[in-house]
Amino acid sequence: MGQKVFNEQCHQAFLSADQGDNIIIIPAIVLMEILYLFEKSRIKIDLIQTEVLLKSKNYQYEPLSLEILKTAADIDDIPELHDRMIAATARHLDIPLITNDPVIRKSRFIKILE
Question: Could you give the 3-state DSSP secondary structure of residue 25?
């Protein structure tokens, strides 16, 4: 799958959420990564901007739970722990994941937004 196709599909998913047609779940670990990357000056969005997004009913925060951790323990083809936690959140909720990470996209445990 080409990068352009993936970007268009992601764009449509976010547009659909913006219009109130679906909900995008944001795992707790994603917020942790936003904090880390912002502090390292690798991204420009910070947690305050993310918090504004989460005040919308179409973007929901999913806290890390024991059930998600147990789901992560079963995922053996994503070695990086943070990526595995993101994937485990999607698997636990039985929803497709929006990602361009090639390791996560190859996982046999995760449904990817296609």
Answer: strand
Winning range, highest mean pLDDT, from 11-15, 34-38, 48-52:
34-38
Predicted local distance difference test score (pLDDT) of residue 56: 85
Burial code (b: 16+ CB inside 10 Å, e: under 16) for 71-103 equals bbeebeebeeeebbbbbbbbbbeebebebeeee
Please report the pLDDT score of residue 10 as a whole number: 82
User: Which residues is 27 bridged to in the sheet?
Assistant: 62
Residue type, 12: Q
Q: Which tens digits make up the pLDDT trace of 93-102?
A: 999 999 989 9
Instruction: Write the CB contacts of 19 (distance below 8 Å, at least 6 apart in sequence).
Output: none
Give the start-to-end residue ranges of the domains of the chain: 3-106
Q: Which CATH number applies to 3-106? A: 3.40.50
What three-state secondary structure class fits 109?
coil
Q: What is the 3-state secondary structure (H, E, C) of 56-75?
A: CCCEEEECCCHHHHHHHHHC
Q: Coil, helix or strand for 41?
A: coil
